[in-house]
């Protein structure tokens, strides 16, 4: 593959698209902070991760915050948009639909193992198709099939008033405003908004805010902010309260979760 690094968000050459003969292709993009890959879709699946930097991905009425060395699986034919929240080195694995190793129709954040990282690096250095590429591709697909998934998505609503509320909280996750306060801002009653949260998102306002804050923590911790500062920025009363909720959700403390993988 001998991958060349792309430094723009525009279309790529069709020569990098997966084919029956070469079902897995690697695309490398090095982008600055706050660059946007506009909403698009294609008939192959992809896995996107950043060697460094944090990504925000929108797809299927959800948003994901993807920290360094985690990846997001995006099935074929799913419209998606990717934003870099800071300077990022993206590595995108295109996978032909018939070779998809993950049998699900929604996006999911995955752990990137050391082996997966090295397989991508090795594939990126191969100059042409051949037996070595075939062996590495088979190993990479096996590794993707057993990758651990992480609950890092935030469901987003379609209803206009509810979406306005949720976008406001994404922009200011530490906001202490109540559902009644937001009801006055968006022009709906508190009861109506509570009903919409349950109907559209399957959870209460408080549960959604908790989920959003934990997902939003990823880019803050990955950028090196102290946990005390992250807890304050997300509206937690203390660092210990934030760490306890993080561990309850992700199974690891924040420091262990973001510890560099060897």
From TrEMBL:
Keywords attached to this entry: Activator, DNA-binding, Repressor, Transcription, Transcription regulation
Entry superkingdom: Bacteria
GO molecular function, one term: sequence-specific DNA binding
HTH araC/xylS-type domain mapped to chain residues: 160-260
Gene3D superfamilies: Homeodomain-like (1.10.10.60), Jelly Rolls (2.60.120.10)
Keyword Repressor: yes
Keyword Repressor in annotation: yes
CDD domains registered for this protein in UniProt: cupin_NimR-like_N (cd06124)
One Pfam family, short name: HTH_18
Listed name of the protein: AraC family transcriptional regulator
């Amino acid at each position: 593959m001998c991958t060349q690094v792309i430094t723009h968000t525009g279309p790529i050459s069709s020569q990098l698209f997966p084919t029956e003969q070469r079902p897995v292709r690697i695309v490398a993009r090095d982008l600055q902070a706050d660059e946007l890959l506009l909403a698009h879709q294609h008939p192959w699946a992809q896995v996107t991760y950043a060697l460094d930097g944090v990504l925000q991905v929108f797809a299927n009425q959800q948003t994901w915050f993807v920290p360094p060395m985690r990846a997001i699986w995006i099935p074929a034919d799913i419209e998606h948009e990717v934003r870099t929240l800071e300077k990022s080195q993206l590595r995108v694995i295109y996978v032909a639909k018939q070779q998809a190793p993950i049998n699900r129709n929604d996006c999911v954040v995955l752990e990137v193992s050391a082996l997966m990282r090295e397989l991508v690096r090795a594939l990126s250095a191969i100059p042409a198709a051949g037996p070595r590429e075939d062996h590495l591709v088979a190993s990479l697909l096996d590794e993707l099939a057993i990758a651990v998934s992480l609950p890092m998505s935030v469901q987003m609503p379609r209803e206009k008033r509810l979406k306005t509320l949720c976008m406001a909280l994404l922009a200011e996750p530490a906001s202490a405003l109540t559902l009644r306060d937001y009801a006055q801002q968006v022009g709906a009653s508190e009861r109506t908004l509570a009903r919409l949260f349950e109907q559209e998102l399957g959870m209460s306002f408080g549960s959604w805010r908790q989920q959003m804050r934990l997902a939003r923590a990823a880019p803050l911790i990955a950028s090196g902010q102290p946990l005390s500062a992250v807890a304050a920025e997300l509206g937690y009363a203390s660092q210990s309260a934030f760490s306890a909720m993080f561990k309850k959700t992700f199974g690891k403390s924040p420091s262990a979760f973001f510890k560099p993988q060897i």
